[in-house]
Amino acid sequence: MAEDKKNVDESAEPQVPQAVVSRLSLYLRELQHLVRDGFETTSSTQLGRLLGFTDAQVRKDLAYFGQFGYPGIGYRCAELIAAIKKILGTNQSWSLAIVGMGNLGRALIGYRGFQQQGFEIVAGFDTDPAKIGNKIEGLQVYHLDEVTQVVREKNIRLAIVAVPSAVAQRVADALVSAGVEGILNFAPVTLALPKHIHTVGVDLAIELEQLSFNVVSKLAKGP
Amino acid sequence: MAEDKKNVDESAEPQVPQAVVSRLSLYLRELQHLVRDGFETTSSTQLGRLLGFTDAQVRKDLAYFGQFGYPGIGYRCAELIAAIKKILGTNQSWSLAIVGMGNLGRALIGYRGFQQQGFEIVAGFDTDPAKIGNKIEGLQVYHLDEVTQVVREKNIRLAIVAVPSAVAQRVADALVSAGVEGILNFAPVTLALPKHIHTVGVDLAIELEQLSFNVVSKLAKGP
DNA sequence: TAGATTGTTAATCGATTAACAATC
DNA sequence: TAGATTGTTAATCGATTAACAATC
């Protein structure tokens, strides 16, 4: 128990790369489309083609989590969907908080895609007195000072941060001390948080920078 | 010239991994914060610490593009900012179109972070007659049928897709045939587009799935 | 049976890290 | 000079792909 070599994780499982987890979400999305389009089964080749991956990669990714396919047949879509949801934790529904009732925050409250994948926003927070106590887009808005109480009452484990950069770190700290375990951060800053808190950052300007880089780079090569 | 081994890109340059490009955007963001906070210079160690990377990785990433540092000194922030902007193509301003004037589309029009990094939304598109011809959040809204003309007139090279999944592919096709070269897609679908068109997909539900996966996985290990 | 497709091992490829001479 | 830090090469590590026996 005492002997740790380097900083290797002590847990037994093979340790799943984050890249595998994000492809898992893409497999889930494609499988849902396949079911909608009437497919009962699919194959690693088909899934790979739809997403631009090799068939080997699809099989390898799934192999991290178990055996889900049938040699000679492929994968039963409904079955694989259920399995991936279980792995991702979205076989159950998650209660979310959102902080920041600006343009982006309000848009996210109305976003249908969250509900569809098992995420329900159950509380909004802001510090603007004009907004607190009202409902915005049907969602009850609380003062950030009440976050600890509301998070406990409503069993909130994940939160969305949609506030200006200048206050994002303070808001994140408040969420963490209220007991939130994961944060989806839309403010264009790197949050400094305890290691056991999970963070995903979405910086919209950065996404555009990836595009502009690729567009300008391609100028070098002719058509 | 004829002899190509496998499907190796013919272009001379070392071929930059996409992961490097996204870290480049993060370096830029941190450098801008450092300048705001009064730093004249920084180092690979400092940048790495702020972002959770090793110093070696920072230097290696930058080395793809040239020599920007001073041995014994580090990097001059302003200088490195200018260099990265040039690499990413954001030393110039980009004119953007946005398609879809729903909740998310309207929020993105008002998002200050785009302007700040050199992206200006100059035209909105929709197919709802009630919206066309008006200004939304100060932005002129056109019918999607006019996209080719507007794209040409306003020199638009990048576009944001914020429409429902069901129509995202058709919208993307229209943008491409209008001459757009890069698409930031918020619809939760994989777009099938010509190889020379660049796409970045942002699926908000998938970002939350990454969080839920990590939160449930951590249950296995006790504190 | 023949054809299809899995799960898995081994081979390849690519990315990260460590180390260090060169430089300020 | 001593201390700091770069750019770069070599070593390590990890992820992807190819190949194939097993299975339906």
TrEMBL record, chains A, B:
<dbReference type="GO" id="GO:0005737">
    <property type="term" value="C:cytoplasm"/>
</dbReference>
<feature type="domain" description="CoA-binding">
    <location>
        <begin position="89"/>
        <end position="190"/>
    </location>
</feature>
<dbReference type="InterPro" id="IPR036390">
    <property type="entry name" value="WH_DNA-bd_sf"/>
</dbReference>
<dbReference type="Pfam" id="PF02629">
    <property type="entry name" value="CoA_binding"/>
</dbReference>
<comment type="subunit">
    <text>Homodimer.</text>
</comment>
<dbReference type="GO" id="GO:0045892">
    <property type="term" value="P:negative regulation of DNA-templated transcription"/>
</dbReference>
<feature type="binding site">
    <location>
        <begin position="100"/>
        <end position="105"/>
    </location>
    <ligand>
        <name>NAD(+)</name>
    </ligand>
</feature>
<dbReference type="InterPro" id="IPR058236">
    <property type="entry name" value="Rex_actinobacterial-type"/>
</dbReference>
<dbReference type="InterPro" id="IPR009718">
    <property type="entry name" value="Rex_DNA-bd_C_dom"/>
</dbReference>
<dbReference type="GO" id="GO:0003700">
    <property type="term" value="F:DNA-binding transcription factor activity"/>
</dbReference>
<dbReference type="InterPro" id="IPR036291">
    <property type="entry name" value="NAD(P)-bd_dom_sf"/>
</dbReference>
<dbReference type="GO" id="GO:0051775">
    <property type="term" value="P:response to redox state"/>
</dbReference>
<keyword id="KW-0678">Repressor</keyword>
<comment type="function">
    <text>Modulates transcription in response to changes in cellular NADH/NAD(+) redox state.</text>
</comment>
<keyword id="KW-0963">Cytoplasm</keyword>
<protein>
    <recommendedName>
        <fullName>Redox-sensing transcriptional repressor Rex</fullName>
    </recommendedName>
</protein>
<keyword id="KW-0805">Transcription regulation</keyword>
<feature type="DNA-binding region" description="H-T-H motif">
    <location>
        <begin position="26"/>
        <end position="65"/>
    </location>
</feature>
<dbReference type="InterPro" id="IPR022876">
    <property type="entry name" value="Tscrpt_rep_Rex"/>
</dbReference>
<keyword id="KW-0520">NAD</keyword>
<keyword id="KW-0804">Transcription</keyword>
<dbReference type="InterPro" id="IPR036388">
    <property type="entry name" value="WH-like_DNA-bd_sf"/>
</dbReference>
<comment type="similarity">
    <text>Belongs to the transcriptional regulatory Rex family.</text>
</comment>
<dbReference type="GO" id="GO:0003677">
    <property type="term" value="F:DNA binding"/>
</dbReference>
<dbReference type="InterPro" id="IPR003781">
    <property type="entry name" value="CoA-bd"/>
</dbReference>
<dbReference type="Pfam" id="PF06971">
    <property type="entry name" value="Put_DNA-bind_N"/>
</dbReference>
<keyword id="KW-0238">DNA-binding</keyword>
